[in-house]
Amino acid sequence: MELQGKSVFGGIAIGKLSIYNKGENVVKRSKVDDVEAEVKRFEEAKETAKAQLKGLYDKAMKEVGEANAQIFDVHQMMLDDLDYVESIENMIRSQGINAEFAVATTGDNFSEMFAAMDDDYMRARAADVKDISNRVVSVLQGAEEGGIDSSEPVILVADDLAPSETVQLDKSLVLSFVTRHGSTNSHTAILARTMNIPALIGIDYSDDVNGKFAIVDGYEGKLIIEPDEETLKIYEEKKHADEEKARLLLELRGKENVTLDGKKINLYANIGGVGDVADVLKNDAGGIGLFRSEFLYLGSNDFPTEEEQFKAYRTVAENMAGKKVIIRTLDLGADKQVDYFSLGNEENPALGYRAIRICLTQPEIFKTQLRAIFRASYYGNISIMYPMIISVDEVHEIKAIVAEVKKELDEAGIPYGNVEQGIMIETPAAVLMSEELGKEVDFFSIGTNDLTQYTLACDRQNPKLERFNDAHHPAVLKAIQMTIENGHKGGAWVGICGELGADTTLTETFLRMGVDELSVSPSRILAVREKIRTTDLSK
Ligand code: PEP
Ligand code: MG
Within this chain, do residues 270 and 225 fall inside the same structural domain, yes or no? Predict the structure, then answer.
């Protein structure tokens, strides 16, 4: 059987299909014999949940201050709310049912009741009561994590994968990603490129594919389930040819990124964490042009501490041994959500409370990260860049916060290095202000994924818009050109770190525009190098 979808990264994968286990708690109603023992089970689970929340409160208090920690305090109090507890215990006693079902049902009932209230504060509690109920249910059931139900590498099939889910996956078990939803620019697609494995979207699979043998054709966007022997042989040969090509590209390691007529540029790599550095080195990148630091937040169940962040940044800087490492500050929000952050629901998340907007609104979180980056800068060649900038005022505000952080480090006698500072150009406002912004910073890095989304008003997550969300649109290319010219006028160097930077059909165009740096997935470094080395700008 053959299913047609759309490829988001090429290549061939051959192996068993495995449907991603979301790890959601399914709550079933069942009868119990000893209702008092069941009430006791609930009481104990409630105390465990409270202890977990207390732990979260203490950690958040240290990391992000009282205002942000308070929610965990509120959750502890809600668990002791008399009406809530009585409703659960009453249900267990009067209906003789299991604690899980009583907690989940009470959670749903209270949540509906709060949601229907006039008062804004009470309405906001609807999500909280659900949250605490889920926590107690998890304790009662023994918390179950989502993941891959296999010990051998598989083609991972899912409806869709949230960034927080992909970061927690055991990557060594994934041969390919196949999703029903998702889009070319989704973070699953970016992850597939980083891992150099094929990925398909828009595959309408049925549940009975689980465990079946299949081929992913990342060139044609096809999933071939239970292929016949002849087809399998053809694909095995194709896979072998791919491996041979990759081997030949590896011979470009150690060579310069220079055109036939002598123009040199920097070729750096994009990473999501410490685990990607081995690939950066293997593919001989000249540095790291984008370290998506939010993956440290997405991969954790709580705010990463200053120490945890410091360790990650220092390790990357040390492993890169003096080569440039550009750390992008926290870019959460929109499609990158974490439970513990409580960013709240938004009508238009892509136009919402995200990235630098969170950092400037909650400076304690921002300062924790900046302190960790500055401390790590002593151990390597670290630069910082800020995402989603729209104005010069924001840059001034950032500079003031950075000055505070440096002053505090100076006072504590903590050393730090010389840190270049840049901004991402990923909004039309930043492009239009690029002349003024270029005078303020050391460098620009153009985020073409978001710049395309905002220039063309096309949600990058919406698969229906694939046809319209065209990164080759002349408006996007004009925006890139204008940014490069204005950046240079102001004395800033200009790079591209969005996915378009790896598109070898545009490498010559970018070189002619005068780009100084391209930052691409580690697996794309050598292909882009080959393109640069065969380009002649004198013609
Ligand atoms: C971009 O928007 O192009 C970018 C590099 O950032 P992200 O894909 O992480 O939003
Ligand atoms: Mg972006």
Answer: no
